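Customer escalation, tier 2.

The customer says the design service returned an amino acid string that "doesn't look like it belongs to this structure." They asked us to rerun it and document both sides in this ticket. The original structure tokens are below, unchanged.
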């Protein structure tokens, strides 16, 4: 059945803004032990500063303009509302590209990279690198609205995004993703190899090949990153434990309190970015609040965290088939998961692998120039047809 698309734009009612400001003004702040900073989680002083800015200075109409800078549509796939930015290039030979975000991100991650990818000539680039760019909101996230039934794990999202690209008229395309978007992108390549020309990811989760020494073939840099990954798993995955087991319990506080929501999300942007502990080295308050505001105004923090329950608790990881299409990966310095090449080179058809000296988990938002260059370099190696 052909999909029906409706034009979409973001409009935030004054009543929504007024309610947010009232809630922020009435925040009941917890205590914090003096001098601990971020050791126990989000630092109270920083969060108070961020929330005060959100209440008194954040420009909601500028936020709308950023969200509406490119055409957007909504449709229904598998019973679920799906929103996407659909930015077509003026270049006649542009190639289709779908870019998928993860948690706690949103389409706001990609506001700075859409223009250079769509119209490289206007940004000093080569017109041959132009793409028609599709940026969906994951089901349960942002402008796609909440999910309403069980089973929306990463592979099901990939199936929906395959239908989305077909519905938009793209027979053959590239796919890129990070965080959950990495799983979705990999699954797209596995499920639709006749349509996906190549994939590129900036997060790569894998285990050592069975029956082999996990350090075999690892460089010193690989071993250092592996140690960082092991530290992350041991010290930084409390959020994952609750979101994959009891997300509903968490949701009451995050849905009712904007300060709670901001505290839950901004800690990840600080910990997962290449910022040396200063989150505003990588993101301004406005860019942080663009992303947080999407979760707040759409009320989707609960359904976004349910993807952990569905994918991890529900076995969605196990249902990802093998990938045979050309595969690219950029190892951004501050990324939380970067499996060594030696662990995956026998499983994937690797056509591009590069270590970037800057950037972290939210690379498109943190280092947009570098991210755009990595995407271009990867997909130059893989023709759309043939």
């Amino acid at each position: 059945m052909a999909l029906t698309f409706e034009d979409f734009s973001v409009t935030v009612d004054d009543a929504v803004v007024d309610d947010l400001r009232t809630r922020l003004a009435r925040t009941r702040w917890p205590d914090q032990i003096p001098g601990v900073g971020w050791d126990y989680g989000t630092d109270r002083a920083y969060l108070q500063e961020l929330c005060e800015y959100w209440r008194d200075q954040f420009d909601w109409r500028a936020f709308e303009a950023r969200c509406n800078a490119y055409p957007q549509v909504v449709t229904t796939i598998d019973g679920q509302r799906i929103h996407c930015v659909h930015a077509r290039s003026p270049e006649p030979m542009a190639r289709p590209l779908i870019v998928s975000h993860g948690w706690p991100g949103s389409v706001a991650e990609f506001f700075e990279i859409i223009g250079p990818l769509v119209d490289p000539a206007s940004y000093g680039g080569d017109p041959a690198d132009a793409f028609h760019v599709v940026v969906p909101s994951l089901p349960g996230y942002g402008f796609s609205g909440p999910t309403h039934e069980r089973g929306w794990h990463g592979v099901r999202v990939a199936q929906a995004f395959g239908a989305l690209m077909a519905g938009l008229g793209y027979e053959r395309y590239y796919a890129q993703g990070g965080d959950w978007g990495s799983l979705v992108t990999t699954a797209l390549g596995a499920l639709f190899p006749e349509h996906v020309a190549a994939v590129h990811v900036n997060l790569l989760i894998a285990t050592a090949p069975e029956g082999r020494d996990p350090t075999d073939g690892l460089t010193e840099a690989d071993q250092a990153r592996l140690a960082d990954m092991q530290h992350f798993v041991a010290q930084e995955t409390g959020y994952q434990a609750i979101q994959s087991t009891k997300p509903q319990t968490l949701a009451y506080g995050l849905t009712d309190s904007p300060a709670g929501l901001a505290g839950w999300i901004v800690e990840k942007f600080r910990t997962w970015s290449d910022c040396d502990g200063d989150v505003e080295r990588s993101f301004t308050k406005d860019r942080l609040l663009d992303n947080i505001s999407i979760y707040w105004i759409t009320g989707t923090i609960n359904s976004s965290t349910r993807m952990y329950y569905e994918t991890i608790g529900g076995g969605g990881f196990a249902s990802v088939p093998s990938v045979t299409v050309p595969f690219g990966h950029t190892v951004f310095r501050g990324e939380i998961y970067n499996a060594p090449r030696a662990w995956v080179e026998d499983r994937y058809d690797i056509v591009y692998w590069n270590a970037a000296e800057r950037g972290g988990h939210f690379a498109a938002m943190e280092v947009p120039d570098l991210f755009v260059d990595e995407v271009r370099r990867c997909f130059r190696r893989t023709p759309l047809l043939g």
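Tier 2 assessment: The sequence is consistent with the input. The domain at 41-204+213-380 is CATH 3.40.50.1820 (Rossmann fold). The mean pLDDT is 95. Sent an explanation to the customer and offered a walkthrough call.
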